[in-house]
Here is the input.
Amino acid sequence: MRICIVGAGYVGLTTAAALADFGHEVQCVDIAESKIENLCQGKVPIYEPGLEDLIRKNLISGKLNFSSQVKESISDYPIIIIAVGTPSKEDGSSNLTFLNQVVEIIASEINDHKIIITKSTVPPGTNERIYQTLIEMGINEELFDIVSNPEFLREGTALWDIYHANKIVFGTKTVRPIKALKNLYKKGNAPYIFTNLSGAELIKYASNAFLATKISFANEIARICDAYEVDYADVANGLATDPRIGRLFLNAGLGFGGSCLPKDISSLKHSALLKNVETKLLDAVHKVNETQIELYLNKLSMVLPDLSKKQITVWGVTFKPDTDDLRSSPAIALIKQLVQKGCRVHTFDPMVELELADVTSFRDQYESIKDSDALIIATEWAQFINPNWLEVKSKMKGSIILDARNCLDVKNVRRQGLIYLGVGKR
Ligand code: UGA
Here is the structure.
């Protein structure tokens, strides 16, 4: 199949590389010329394990190409996958400017039949509106099919997620494009879920809202565990054996961040409000998440009352491990609050040298803790889980370790004479 993917971000690039690897002829386009120049040379602008290798392999085989000629490519290809960003607006709704621009180009370039597939996360009703817009512009409905095909990949494991998808969702208006759609992911074994356009859009939002709910639930239970001197891990393990609950996404910690969960909850709440539907549960999920940083900082100030005069090291600045993405990172929100309180903040992250006012970033994990009063683990990168505690102890001035991701072995930490702080961890 000949496919044009519009947008060379996380979703666009991963999808482009995987579909080319499945044997399709893929052209990935973006208006950012320098990004495309780099991609043509196999240089990938984001850190995603395995992605650069897969892109290079398919560039060499000729199955994958990159271009900044958006209009020409859209005109040339019969299948268009839209994978542009839909960031949050101030009011929590999704900004659809980029998507609308692509739709306008598609409208001006339809000569032969096109299948238009939206992969960008968009509020319910958006694909229906795209359909109506094209019809109102006088485009014959025989000339196009609109498909909503949301993406469920996670940053850091994006390729694994594409090759081992647990479902492939297609929202369509008619059965006409279904045969072609089945050929798109022909190499996977994932079950297909067919629904209408808004149904597919809502499956995407409901998935992320449910994951966020699990995390806020975990964080609330961890707070209760903390109050009753119970190890939250025991409770999580107790929940895990019930197949109706499961263990995944029940890790307590600083809360959820990233470019998806926070944004999608806000957008879903906004969409519900437009139809006068109350979202008490989603509001609570949001609220628990927002107060996690305060919770951890309160823990810290209980043992370090004069925080403003202290030097604090934060390990991990990305929103989760195995990514270089800083968008809505709880670690950064925490760092900003420490700075606001007057602390001297040092940071170390395996992928990112943070550039932030009043923060000193280090290239060496152990240099970053020299003379610090406390060390906070804000992102659970593998190298933070079992570091050389002897070295940590000898370099630090103080002895407080705040485990804001519930990822450390408490006994190991205490064995070195360090003070372990966490929420719901004994
Ligand atoms: C999320 C979803 O997991 C994907 O299925 C979805 O496709 C993607 O959003 C998207 O909409 O594009 P992602 O944002 O990459 O993926 O990251 P997650 O692995 O979901 O983690 C989100 C946040 O939740 C991170 O800050 C992470 O640290 C936190 N988290 C995750 C927890 O606090 N506890 C957990 O148990 C799991």
